[in-house]
Amino acid sequence: MITKIHSGKVLFGNEIKENVSVYIKNEKIIAVTDENLTFDISIDAKGNYVSPGFIDIHVHGGAGYEFVDATKEAIIKASDIHAKHGTTTIYPTISAYEYDKTAKALDAVKKYSAEAMPNIYGCHLEGPYFSPLQSGAQDPSFIRTPDEKEYTLLYEKYGDIITRWSYAPELENSDKFLAFLNEKGIIPAAGHTDAIYNDMLYAYKHGMKLITHLYSCTSTITRKDGFRRLGVIETAYLYDDIDVETIADGCHLPPELLKLIYKIKGDDHMCLVTDAIRYGGMSDAENISCENGNIPYVIEDGVAKLSDRSAFAGSIATTDRLVNVCVKKAGIPLVSAVKMITEVPARIMKLKNKGLIKIGYDADIVIFDDDINIKYTIVKGKVVHKND
Predict the structure, then answer these.
(1) pLDDT at 99 exceeding the cut of 90
(2) CA 270 – CA 296 distance, rounded (Å)
(3) Which residues of 76-93 are buried (b: 16+ CB within 10 A; e: fewer)?
(4) Distances from the Cα of 191 to the Cαs of 59, 63, 129, 168, in angstroms?
(5) At what angle do helices 99-112 and 72-84 cross, to 10 degrees?
(6) Which residue among 13, 46, 147, 379 is buried most deeply as judged by most CB within 10 Å?
């Protein structure tokens, strides 16, 4: 069975091609051409953009559920709402909790990921090895230094589902933890950290090339005995090959800050993430009040805030909103914004055959209009959501 997507503007690498069609067979892209090939089913893009599917490497939940709820319903429904907004690959993210709750969540994702859409290729553990001074919306009662017995046991049981781990490089025993991550092929990322330059330099030289949500719980320049010391943010800018997550919801990072990050890091090393929590993809009209563990927060103004309004507690964004903010508010070219939510996260997560519309690649495709309203979400050649 061959599907033809036609009459669209195809985002083909760093250019937009018109008058070409995309042909899909057996979950793969088999042609991108202006030739009329044989097909069985056609999808009329109606002049809209045809893009690689969006990849979200940092997302806690949505639709009133979080992945840490550890139920089949939570895994499927939290994933589904993001698929409606153009996400075709998702990495469930688990915050800092006690061992048993973390293990239960990993077990649930492992059990039910095959039944969820979009694609789930692993989990991101965001903690618990963080700086208490940069806990943000993470519950400080669960934050601790790396525990070799704990992380070894988690790997022994769930190493096939743990693909990335965020930690604070300045902590005691963090060097041993980083070596463990590298040995096991788990992607290390610096997050919720008060690290100074020397901490970051050690981690960078030993394989840490990713920053978890830049500017959110990441240290900046400090002074000691009058001398300035770089922090996480400056280190990320100093080394060209460090990738940075950006919560581009227009709240966590205002448009002018997105412009700055884009100017310095470019579209090769800037990665868009939702960091969506339980109410991802939902309206904030009712000013919902809720809790993350022992941390109360409120949903308003399009974002989750700590209940005292002193800081943000996570986002309610979806990937289409990230692209919209980058293009419409930050003035970033569409091809770059799309690259930062497709090709870049695919490279970071070492995904083969994803992130591009290219022959031989998985047929993960979204079709959207000029305002980034999603018309079709296609996962491995199958239409999973349609809003035509």
Answers:
(1) yes
(2) 31
(3) bbbbbbbbbbbbbbbbbb
(4) 14, 26, 9, 6
(5) 60
(6) 379
pLDDT class of 13 with cuts at 50, 70, 90 = confident
CA distance 168 to 54: 28
Confidence of residue 290 (pLDDT cuts 50, 70, 90): low
Plot region of 12 (φ>0 → left; ψ -120 to 50 → alpha; else → beta): beta
pLDDT tens digits, 51-63: 999 999 999 999 9
Burial of 145 (0-12, 13-18, 19+ CB in 10 A): middle
